[in-house]
Design goal:
By secondary structure, this protein is α+β, with helices and mostly antiparallel strands. It has a single domain, classed as Electron Transport, Fmn-binding Protein, Chain A (Pnp Oxidase, Chain A, Roll). The chain is about 20% helix and about 30% strand. The protein is built from 5 helices and 11 strands. It has helices spanning about 25-35, 75-80, 120-135, 150, 210-215; strands spanning about 10-15, 40-45, 50-55, 60, 65-70, 85-95, 105-115, 115-120, 155-160, 165-170, 185-190. Strands 1, 2, 3, 6, 7, 10 and 11 form a 7-stranded mixed sheet that branches. A 4-stranded antiparallel sheet has the order 4-5-9-8, sandwiched between helices. A hairpin with a 7-residue loop joins β6 (about 85-95) and β7. The longest helix is centred in the middle third of the chain and has 15 residues, at about 120-135. The radius of gyration is 20 Å and the shape is globular.
């Protein structure tokens, strides 16, 4: 997407104090988590108030790109200089232990802090295409490009990945104390799968389903498997 934005010398993982054994400090683990999801939470503050907004996104190199209406308050605040952070989480399993205190979840999470840049012109167009193709690979090549009016009504932001935190928990519940043995314990894996496409009411009978939609319906989502995440 235009200029190549690589990791800078200031980019670094954050120190994790609680359950440090679950932290990953390599950017490959961060990239896998970001690339496996398509919805995250954009956070900012404005006039002393916290704002949290769930958003579709894509990772492009060392930046996270998001877009929304020019009337969107959080995007507008960030475009005017408010600090920004972005978080993503994948819930992979419910961990059932013999006690409620020891029960947990298997998950992959990432929190990114960085500097936001407003993208315009061709960079904005490419960023919107990248978000679409992250969700439906190849979709941007199946439809017309964006009009000037559409781009004028859209705020597109790129958040640099300057600092990040990655945490991953995988595996069964911890061994219980002797007095808590005897009850069932284990994990309940969770999966999100794409179902058969449902055409809009105004689509003519016989209109072919595009390749990008057929491909999405033919596989599970998220794309990445929790089994592929490795810790350093």
């Amino acid at each position: 997407m235009g200029e190549d934005h690589r990791m800078t010398t200031e980019s670094r993982p954050e120190h994790v104090r609680r359950h440090a054994e679950r932290a990953a400090t390599d950017r490959a683990s961060l990239h896998r988590i970001l690339d496996a999801q398509c919805v995250g939470t954009l956070a900012t503050t404005w006039d002393g108030e916290p704002w949290l907004v769930p958003m579709l996104y894509a990772r492009v190199g060392e930046r996270i790109v998001v877009h929304g209406s020019t009337g969107a308050g959080a995007l507008g605040a960030i475009a005017r200089g408010a600090p920004a952070a972005f978080s993503v989480m994948a819930l992979d399993a419910i961990v059932v232990a013999p006690t409620l205190f020891a029960s947990s979840a298997n998950y992959r999470s990432a929190v990114v802090h960085g500097t936001a840049e407003v993208l315009r012109g061709e960079q904005a167009r490419e960023a919107i295409d990248a978000i679409s193709d992250a969700i439906l690979p190849g979709r941007s090549g199946e439809v017309r490009t964006h009009t000037r009016k559409e781009l004028a009504g859209t705020t597109v932001l790129a958040l640099s990945i300057d600092r990040f935190t990655v945490k991953v928990r995988q595996g069964p519940p911890s061994e219980p104390d002797p007095e808590d043995r005897g009850a069932w314990a284990g994990t309940v894996p969770l999966r999100t799968a794409a179902a058969n496409p449902v055409p809009a009411p105004w689509v003519n009978d016989g209109t072919p389903v595009p390749a990008s939609v057929r491909a999405l319906a033919g596989r599970a989502h998220p794309i990445d498997s929790a089994d592929e995440v490795s810790l350093p």
